[in-house]
Request: fold
Amino acid sequence: MGNRAAAVLALALALWAGAQQPDEACVNCPTVELEREGKPIVAVKTSPDDVSDVFVIEYLDVQTGFLEALDPDARRARVQGVALWFDARTRLDPALQTGDFVWAVYNPDLDDGGGRAYLLELRPHPEAEPAHHALQRFLIYDPAPYRTRVRFGEDTEAYGHIAQVERVKGVRERVVLGDGEVRYLADADRFEVNFSDGDQAVEVVQGKSRAWGRRLDYDNATGKARVTGPIRLQRAGEKPLSGSSQALVYDLDEDTLTLQGEVVLVQEERTTRADAAYVVESEGYAYLYGDPVVSKGPDGEVRGRVVRYRLDSGELLVLEGIEAVFDDAP
Reply:
């Protein structure tokens, strides 16, 4: 590798201190940290460098502004006066047209010989004043049996094999966590990441609750991490609980999990269905919402629009819109 990527990779790998077991807490592991209102978001590489040496920092440029030219045949573009070239690996939004306001990520070190910088990403951007930004992009890859660990605040952690963290100071900070393929492209002197959509690629742990999904996308502007489904949920305890939904959202500010879409909770012989479930693990409750929420067990059926669910025992309390309670006992 050459230029900035190689130098930074060597520095990053020097931070590694000793081999660790999968998911074991380690000291002086390479980390990337963000912060939201005093709460840390920390991504940690856990595998030793003889398993994976991928802890890379890229220093890139971002130009927001109007797309002044786009020539797919010549593979050239111009954004707010910045001349760019691209290839098949560049991520271009296919709907873009000249005149659109865009977000362009490029590497000025990869010049095509004609004064054009290499374009990595071009996508629409909410219109604002044109601006130039410096972007830091961190890539962590921990192959099985190791996993990259991302800690949100003090009580919630997420795990996956690939983490990509982007920081544009004062503009954009995000974390993408999942599974997929990481390849080094020698001709471009950079690593390419292709996230897969395999089930259960990401695990989220909060208290007694564990949830699995395909990919986690965290936006530090909102403090929310969305995990795409299908979601599988398990909660340990005297009466273990299992569940599923279409998506999951973790709220860092509230320290809560929200299951969204076709929510199903199963605890012993009772099955409860809802449109959404707001899980407050610290209180031991979930608040279920539906039209209606329907809970069926050996002692009957309960329906309501808002239901409080005690996670340890499965005890239900209809808070709003009770429809019926049936006792199936003879």
